Amino acid sequence: MAREYEVTGARRVVNKFTMWLARRGWASQVVLTTTGRSSGEPRPVPVSPLDVDGTGYLVSPYGEVNWVKNARSNPEVHLRHGRQSRKVRLMELKPENTGDLLLRYWKREKITRPYFDVGSSPTAQDFKKEADRHPVFRIITQS
Fold first, then answer.
1. Partner of 108 at 20 to 30 A CA spacing, among 43, 50, 127, 134?
2. For 24-53, how does the pLDDT look when each residue is reduced to its tens digit (9 = 90+)?
3. Domain encompassing residue 127
4. pTM of the entire predicted model
5. At 47, which CATH number?
6. Helix %, strand %, coil % for the chain, to 5?
7. What total number of domains does the chain contain?
8. How far is residue 8's CA from residue 5's CA, in Å, rounded to a whole number?
């Protein structure tokens, strides 16, 4: 059974530190800033983009968390890594098209593996069963 994501005090501290690193360009993560769907306020969170043949994706290993809900409400977001900041649009993919992307993400981001309900040697087919629980967005660069 997959672990359930929970925002704890320790998680908040780790996220703040990760964002501090990403804002300086010292981490592989980037800072995703969405617009709060209720408050309208900027909501930053660290994420690990996935690049596949020059196309960027954001995977939510923890399910329908707040950044996912905010991106669905307003897909215009900002991504920042170091001094580089760019406005992009997120397009959510249909779950049936994300099995391979989820597998690639699972292989790369070992820390998130407990949140996926797959075996120790999963295939893309195994992730198709998980796809409804892990939204994936394509990053579309704005001109």
1. 43
2. 999 999 999 999 999 999 999 999 999 999
3. 9-141
4. 0.92
5. 2.30.110.10
6. 35, 30, 35
7. 1
8. 9
